Every structure is written in C-alpha cells, then in structure tokens.
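To illustrate the input format used throughout this study, we show a single complete record. The first block contains the structure-token representation of the backbone; no residue identities are included at this stage. The design step must infer an amino acid for every position from geometry alone.
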C-alpha cells in the first residue's frame, strides 16, 4: 500500500502505485484539459506530484510538450539563472564486492586493473584538481569493507580538506559511497561532507534484484532506505539518481519522484540533487545489452519534467554525456555539471595506459575544465565554483527555505561571479579569461540590489589584487 510517510522501501516506492500511475498517465496522454490544468499548477513553481508529472512525461500533444519545455526553461531561469555549478569526481578505489551487472567494477570482472589510492596519491590527485581550478569534488569508491572501509573514506576526506596548494582549496566534498549505517553516516557528517549521493540505479525491485545478484547491494530495501539513515545520521543534503537505461524510464521517473515525496514527507526537505546518468560503454559493459536505452529526445523530456516537478532540487549531469547532449539539457534544468573529469583511479595525475583500465565509464566529453568553462560562457551560462551555502551552514531545510523565499538570488549570482573571477585569475587560459572578464562585466549589471553590486565590485578588485574566498 503506497505510503510516502512509511520507512519501508516497498511502501514509499510502491510497485502497484507506480503501475497505476503509468496507466493513468497513458490514459491521459492526450487529455488536453487535464494536461493544461497540470501545467497551470506547475506554473506556480511549487512542484508536482509523481502522478501529475508522469502525465506530462507521457503527453503526446506537441503544443503542450512545447509548453513543458518552455516552463522548464522558465523555472531554470527563475531558480538558477544562467549559473552552472562546476564539480569533478574523484575516484579513490575501484575494489568492489558487489555484482552490479552494468558496472565494470563488479567483483567478477577480472580484466580490469584494481587500484586504491594511498593518502599521498590522494594528495597528488587533489593538487592536480586544484591546479585545474576545481573547488567541489564528488568522492567515488566501490564497496569493499577490506580495501575501502569507512575509516579509509574518512581519512581521505580529511586529507582532501587539508590540502592548500597555491591558491587552491577543495571547499566542498560530496560523497558517493555504498549504503551504510546511521552510525557511519554520522561519522561522514562529522567529517564535513557536503551532499551524500547514492543512486538507486533502478526503482523496479524485481529488476534491481536481477541487476544486483550478489553482494551487500543486492538488498533492495537496505539500499533504498539509505537516504533515510543518512538523514537520521545528521546529513541533511542527500542526492538521488537512477541509471537510465536499466528499466523503463517512465517507471524510474515515477519512482524517483515518489522517493523525493517520501523525503519531503518524513524529513520536511526533499532531495538536494537528482542525477540523471544514462548507461554508457565501459570495460565489460555493452549498453546495447540493456534494452531500455533512451533517445536524446526522451532524455531532454525527462530533464524538463524533473525540472518542472521538483523546482528546488539541483540537477546533475556528468561527462558520460556528449557536449551536444549536455548543451541541450543545460537549458532545460540541469544546474551542475562535471568538467575535465577522469573516471579512472588516479587519472588526474597519470592518464592510464591503454592496456590498463580502471575507469567506471567511458567519457563522452573529454574536454579540459578550461574548455568546458569557455564553452559554457559562449553558450551564455555563468560557470560557478560557489560552495557558499554549505560553508555558511545553509544546508537541508535552511537551504530549502532560503531557496523557496527567493532570497537565494541575493547570494548565487554574486558568489558565482566572485568564484568565476578567482578561476579566471588563477587557472584560465588567456582566451577564457578574456571571455570571462567580459561576462562578469555584463552580469554585474544584472545584480538588482545596488548595495550588493557595490560590495561585489569591491571584492572583485580585491580578488584581482590576490585576496580569495569571499562569499555571501
Ligand atoms: S555500481 Fe558501485 S557497487 Fe556496483 S559494482 Fe560498481 S562500484 Fe560496485
Ligand atoms: S549560494 Fe548556495 S545555492 Fe547559490 S550557488 Fe552558492 S552554494 Fe549554490
């Protein structure tokens, strides 16, 4: 029985409710009147239920689909402006005891090179990331209690925050590690993590069990209830995600939104981010062996419908996607992207020789961070290296209430411009710097509050003179 307030996975992600939602959406996919009323509700920018959003996803009326895209763009502008937050993944170890059939790190893959970074190697990776200009990382590691126990992750976080190399600093470490206990989440919180991210992969329990035949991750309920335990351990920013391509995308979409509704019902705060990875090639993995792959058009519609359904939730895409696919969804609602990523263990210091392969997936976007930053600016976006909310304690419900009050605008653009200025001063190529300076000049004029504009002008001068780390 569907119950968003339940703490049991099978009740807050209720299979029958998803099936009913899908048939309801099918029945109404050309119901002009209903779709118009859902769009009207969505225009209030307070979100939609999984059922309402599923009708929009199924909608087959071209003019109303265009309205969905237009609304997604409007919400993106309203809540995020043209800012895009930058981050990079850091792979610590690819040892893993699980048997996930879509991931090259699965235990039985014997032709992948297994690696685990030492603390010295982590230092070197972090300095390489700082030299690129990154300030925000997502830590990634396989699940292996012997090779990668929690203590290893905690030591690594400490190492990362301790490195101050030239003007560099990692100011926010998000963590993507296996489902664990409340006690361990508490330790991660104490270590100062930003968001705890865990992808569900698929919400379809039967498929989940087939795709995760062995290892601790095979326990669907334990995995699905992990964000609850993270919240109970004091982590108030959690990230959701599914791996599109494993199951029917409409099923996953409904499940994802039900998960968001569950977090909102139980903890009063929805997910901080939603990631939208699609399955892609990797060692031992052929995406064509998964028959639920989604086209570029469906991917764009998914992103637009997520944007409309949960306006306050950041949306993330990785370098799995090509530059063209990224450009399209950036407009429709994605607010964070990775740049200059390496998905190999130790790949920032030493790119891997051909015969080795420790990557979790093949990159579709192989550009440097400088190239990605320049490309974003040429498309009219403002790359942001801001980490201010986390560092000012604006997390969880404090972040959400600030976001919902509209006051976030007084922080985000100034912070984006100041962190972009730091990037331009310290790391950018001359060409990127030229484009960036012009962009900052133009964007400065759009800060509505004159007092804030004056403060930012002053701080930009100070950054030029060598000072760092200003924030609102
Ligand atoms: S998806 Fe994660 S848990 Fe599964 S094999 Fe890959 S690294 Fe391990
Ligand atoms: S001010 Fe907060 S919400 Fe805005 S970009 Fe910075 S960290 Fe994100």
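Output of the design step:
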């Amino acid at each position: 029985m569907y119950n968003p307030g339940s703490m049991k996975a099978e009740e807050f992600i209720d299979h029958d409710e998803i099936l009913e939602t899908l048939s309801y959406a099918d029945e109404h996919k050309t119901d002009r009147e209903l779709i118009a009323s859902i769009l009207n509700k969505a225009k209030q920018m307070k979100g939609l239920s999984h059922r309402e959003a599923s009708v929009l996803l199924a909608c087959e009326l071209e003019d109303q689909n265009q309205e969905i895209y237009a609304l997604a763009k409007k919400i993106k502008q309203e809540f995020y402006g043209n800012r895009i937050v930058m981050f990079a993944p850091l792979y610590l170890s690819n040892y893993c005891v699980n048997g996930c059939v879509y991931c090259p790190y699965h235990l039985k893959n014997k032709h992948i090179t297994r690696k685990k970074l030492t603390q010295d190697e982590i230092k070197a990776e972090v300095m390489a990331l700082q030299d690129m200009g990154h300030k925000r990382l997502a830590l990634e590691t396989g699940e292996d209690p012997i090779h990668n126990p929690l203590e290893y992750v905690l030591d690594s976080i400490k190492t990362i925050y301790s490195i101050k190399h030239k003007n560099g600093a990692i100011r926010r470490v998000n963590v993507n590690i296996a489902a664990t206990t409340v006690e361990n989440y508490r330790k991660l919180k104490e270590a100062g993590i930003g968001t705890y991210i865990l992808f569900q992969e698929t919400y379809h329990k039967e498929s989940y069990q087939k795709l995760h035949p062995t290892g601790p991750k095979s326990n669907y309920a334990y995995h699905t209830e992990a964000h609850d335990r993270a919240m109970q351990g004091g982590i108030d920013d959690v990230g959701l995600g599914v791996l599109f391509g494993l199951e029917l995308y409409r099923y996953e979409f409904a499940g994802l939104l039900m998960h968001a509704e569950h977090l909102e019902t139980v903890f009063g705060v929805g997910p901080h981010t939603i990631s939208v990875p699609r399955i892609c090639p990797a060692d031992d993995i052929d995406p064509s062996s998964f028959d639920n792959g989604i086209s570029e058009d469906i991917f764009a519609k998914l992103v637009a419908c997520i944007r409309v359904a949960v306006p306050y939730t950041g949306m993330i895409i990785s370098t799995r996607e090509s530059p063209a696919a990224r450009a399209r969804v950036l407009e429709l609602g994605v607010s964070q992207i990775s740049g200059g990523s390496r998905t190999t263990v130790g790949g920032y210091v030493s790119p891997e020789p051909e015969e080795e392969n420790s990557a979790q997936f093949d990159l579709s976007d192989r550009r440097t961070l400088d190239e990605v930053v320049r490309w974003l600016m040429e498309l009219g976006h403002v790359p942001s290296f801001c980490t201010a909310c986390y560092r000012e304690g604006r997390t969880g419900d404090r972040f959400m209430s600030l976001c919902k009050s509209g006051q976030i605008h007084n922080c985000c653009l100034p912070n984006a411009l100041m962190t972009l200025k730091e990037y331009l001063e310290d790391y950018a190529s001359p060409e990127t710097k030229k484009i960036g300076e012009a962009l900052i000049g133009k964007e400065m004029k759009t800060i509505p509050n004159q007092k804030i504009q004056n403060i930012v002008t002053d701080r930009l001068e100070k950054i030029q003179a060598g000072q760092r780390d200003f924030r609102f």
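Structural context for interpreting the output: Residues 9-76 form one domain. Strands lie at 83-93, 136-141, 172-176, 196-197, 238-241, 273-275, 314-317, 336-338, 382-384.
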